[in-house]
Design goal:
By secondary structure, the protein is mostly helical. Helices cover 80% and strands 0% of the residues. It has a single domain, classed as Orthogonal Bundle (Helix Hairpins), CATH 1.10.287.
C-alpha cells in the first residue's frame, strides 16, 4: 500500500515494527539506520493523520457551536 494512502492503524503498525526491529541484537548498522529512517517516516505519517483528524474535530466543533447559537 502507498505510504500516502495509509490509515493511522497501518502507519502505527509500521512504526511499531520499525521500533521492534531497532532493538534486534543481530541487526547491522545499515539495517538499524534504515529501520530508524522508516520509523521516522511512520511517525510523521501518524502525526500528520492525527493533526488532520484534530483539525476536522475543531472545524466540526465550531460548526456545531455556530448552529447552537442560531
Amino acid at each position: 500500500m502507498s505510504k500516502n494512502k495509509m490509515t493511522f492503524e497501518e502507519a502505527l503498525a509500521g512504526l511499531e515494527k520499525s521500533a521492534a526491529d531497532l532493538i534486534k541484537p543481530d541487526s547491522t548498522l545499515d539495517e538499524t539506520v534504515s529501520n530508524f529512517e522508516k520509523g521516522i517516516e511512520y511517525y510523521n505519517m501518524c502525526k500528520d493523520i492525527l493533526s488532520e483528524a484534530k483539525q476536522k474535530v475543531v472545524t466540526y466543533s465550531r460548526r456545531g457551536d455556530s448552529d447552537a447559537k442560531s
